[in-house]
Amino acid sequence: MDDDVLARAARIAADWLESLDVRPVGETAGLEELRERLGGPLPDGPVDPLTVVEELAAAADPGLIGSPGGRYFGFVIGGGLPAAVAADWLTTVWDQNAGLYACSPAASVAEEVAGEWLRELFRLPAGSSYAFVPGCQSAHLTCLAAARHHVLRRAGWNVEERGLAGAPAVRIVVSARRHTTIDRALRLLGFGTASLTVVPADAAGRMDVAALRNALHTGGPAIVCAQAGEVNTGAFDDLSAIADATSAAGAWLHVDGAFGLWVLASPRLRHLAAGAERADSWATDAHKWLNVPYDSGIAFCAHPEPHRAAVSTTADYLVQSGPDGPRDQIDWTPGFSRRARAFPVYAALRSLGRRGVADLVERCCGHARTFAAGLADVPGCEVLGKVVINQVLFRFGDDDTTDRVLRHVVDSGEAWLSGTMAGGRRAIRLSVCNWRTSADDIERTLTAFRRAVAAT
Fold it and tell me: Where on the chain is N6-(pyridoxal phosphate)lysine found, per UniProt (predicted)?
């Protein structure tokens, strides 16, 4: 019976992937229809597993978004490399609790190997620690917890023992164009908005370094959050200059590299993130540019001691290895019981190799440039700024026209993109982050925009 259910699920999954090029990218059913299809009373008794799987797949299908396909350009969402998807299936079947070495030696070692591969790929300092977490939000939480421990410890305060009440004030210096996950992580760590010193950013979203230096002038415990890849424009803060300023002030430098950190894997593009290696911590996602299934984020820390001190835990009943033993993931992540996320990351990295990762990043950036160039022939389109990496920001005339054109393209099913705000006005953002995206996908999307303009 298990074989029948798994084989049927595999067939449904394969059919779904094969349909991505021809099915609408967006959903085809609304909220009430999906509630009707998936809802109903909880059965009183068991239902045959094969029936459950088949009916679930049929009911969910019109509410699924074709985000694994080549014409999904929303929210910097990647697809799933074949090896990573297959490894993720195995991860589910193996069902390992990847919290302790004792629970799954293979999961522990796979995380150790994949973490070191990533550290080398990004050229981060030797000996940097790492944690596999659900996403960049959790990676920020992990890194900033380590930062909080470090800067307060230097000020003579043990925050894990004494908490924040009565602690020396910590200044958190952030850019006006930071990602919202930074604020949320800081809030969860007990830093309210009054703790934030917000420095201005230029039109592309790059932090004003002179303003940063002024903000750090007064001294005292400080954490600076910089950015590698602004979410709308893809712009990079001047990480070398920021590292100079934070080093001189004795502040901790954290880099939000949710997708932009991956340029470090490309010999042609790594200059954009020059100076990143001088930071104290870094956060990124593997479910973006590495194209592993959701969810998968990674935190890196140049200082293992505060990293471990901030998040590790012990209990009498746990079988823990100790500082000199095998890797216990619980020492590095905020999670306790946790999925073995390193298996898909390991598979993706091994299937691509160093050159394959670089090619994936460069190819996506090339598609973004092609799309931006093609927009020049679309009547009324204004491309906002130069394409830096994989993000294209553009608009059509006024706000209403921009929204109507976007709605027409999404409703056509040819592509899926999201709207945003740029300079106080509505805009459209295209993000190329999928290994499946081809030149044909870009041309089909451009054609969809030409038709949308003609129709509006």
Answer: 288
- Is residue 30 domain-shared with residue 94, that is, in the same domain? no
The alpha carbons of the chain give a radius of gyration, in whole angstroms, of 23
Residues 32, 111, single domain; the answer is: no
pTM of the model: 0.97
* Tokens 């990079």 belong to residue: 236
Cα–Cα distance, 416 to 359 (Å, whole number): 24
Asked if 416 contacts 65 with a C-beta cutoff of 8 angstroms, the reply is: yes
- 178 in Cβ contact with 256 (< 8 Å): yes
Domain count, the chain: 2
Instruction: Say which residue the tokens 């982050």 belong to.
Output: 433
Low-confidence ranges of the chain (pLDDT < 50): none
Please give the residue range of the domain that contains residue 53: 2-68
> Rounded to an integer, what distance in angstroms lies between the CA atom of residue 302 and that of residue 340?
23
pLDDT on residue 324: 86
The reported pLDDT for the residue numbered 155 is 97
- Written as six digits, the tokens of 56 are 């679930």
What pLDDT score does 2 carry?
79
The CATH code of the domain that includes 170 is 3.40.640.10
Residue 1's pLDDT is 57
161 occurs within a structural domain: yes
